[in-house]
């Protein structure tokens, strides 16, 4: 190879490296939100995921590589301290100077109140079936609200625009790509919702209980309310009395399905199921077994719907 060609090749590598370096560093808390950000960034760059697959976001210890991701971040997207209370200090300390977007506080985010107790009464389930939304954004005390808002495709669609806007502010040269990706992703979200409804329609007469109360956004979006949860929304272990109460509800109401989660103690579900005859499946609000990236979010919701339908 000639010296001139070598020089040109070296220049191309340097230019490519410079272009890559100009893409903002982006850190995201959980895999479903990381997926939305990755979809908006397709063709430009790749965001860093903080909470690794299989871990609970409620309690987490940062690895050095994840702390480094926050330190180099120009933009941070996270749900908020209701879901990841440990992350607030990490963001303030490590991502000082980054543009931080708290999605639970974002304009247009639809929030649902925590449900009382673990056995949802019939009137609560009827409100969900009728599509009532207890609350939307516009409060200061979001500790009262369920943080699992990413399981609403409506919220996800709203956040796509916000993600594109925040990335564009940090990287104006790629604004066109960010907004084009966000627009395409919103259309994909509509098709995804239609597909999920078609999956659930044949089993709507069934009834189910989930491991912890993390799914009411999904339930509301697709008019398919759960009968209860083994654990509260913060995923604390249930007491023996609560397990007995839920087991009795399953027997009395003929609940068809009890859904476990990969992050939590399977023995608790076994105790609830004992002597009931209900089926079981594994459902996951975070996509623990899915490959992180732009395809995770639609795969997550489709897998939830398929698992529920098969269990019923």
UniProtKB/TrEMBL annotation:
Residues 1-21 form the signal peptide. Gene3D superfamilies: Nitrogenase molybdenum iron protein domain. It comes from the Bacteria. One of its GO terms (biological process) is zinc ion transport. InterPro entries: Bact_metal-bind_prot9, ZnuA, ZnuA-like. The keyword Transport applies. Keywords: Disulfide bond, Ion transport, Metal-binding, Periplasm, Signal, Transport, Zinc, Zinc transport. Residues 126-151 are annotated as: Disordered. GO terms for cellular component: periplasmic space. Belongs to the bacterial solute-binding protein 9 family. This is High-affinity zinc uptake system protein ZnuA.
């Amino acid at each position: 190879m000639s010296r001139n060609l070598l020089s040109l090749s070296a220049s191309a590598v340097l230019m490519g490296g410079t272009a890559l370096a100009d893409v903002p560093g982006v850190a995201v808390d959980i895999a479903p939100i990381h997926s939305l950000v990755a979809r908006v960034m397709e063709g430009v760059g790749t965001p860093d995921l903080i909470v690794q697959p299989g871990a609970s976001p409620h309690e987490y210890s940062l690895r050095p590589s994840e702390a480094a991701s926050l330190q180099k971040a120009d933009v941070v997207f996270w749900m908020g301290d209701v879901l990841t209370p440990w992350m607030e200090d990490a963001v303030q300390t490590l991502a000082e100077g980054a543009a931080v977007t708290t999605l639970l506080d974002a304009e247009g985010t639809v929030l649902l109140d925590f449900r009382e107790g673990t056995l949802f009464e019939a009137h609560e389930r009827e409100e969900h079936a009728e599509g009532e939304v207890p609350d939307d954004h516009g409060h200061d005390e979001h500790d009262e609200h369920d943080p699992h808002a990413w399981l609403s495709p409506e919220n996800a669609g709203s956040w796509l625009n916000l993600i594109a806007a925040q990335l564009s502010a940090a990287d104006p040269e790629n604004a066109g790509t960010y907004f084009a990706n966000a627009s395409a992703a919103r259309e994909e979200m509509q098709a995804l919702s239609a597909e999920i409804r078609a999956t659930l329609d044949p089993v709507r007469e069934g009834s189910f209980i989930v491991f912890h109360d993390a799914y009411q956004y999904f339930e509301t979006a697709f008019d398919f309310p759960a009968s209860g949860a083994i654990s509260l929304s913060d995923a604390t272990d249930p007491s023996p009395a609560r397990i007995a109460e839920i087991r009795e509800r399953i027997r009395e109401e003929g609940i068809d399905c009890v859904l476990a989660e990969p992050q939590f103690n399977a023995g608790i579900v076994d105790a609830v199921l004992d002597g009931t005859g209900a089926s079981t499946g594994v459902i996951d609000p975070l996509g623990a077994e899915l490959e992180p990236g732009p395809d995770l979010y639609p795969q997550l919701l489709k897998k939830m719907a398929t698992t529920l339908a098969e269990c019923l």
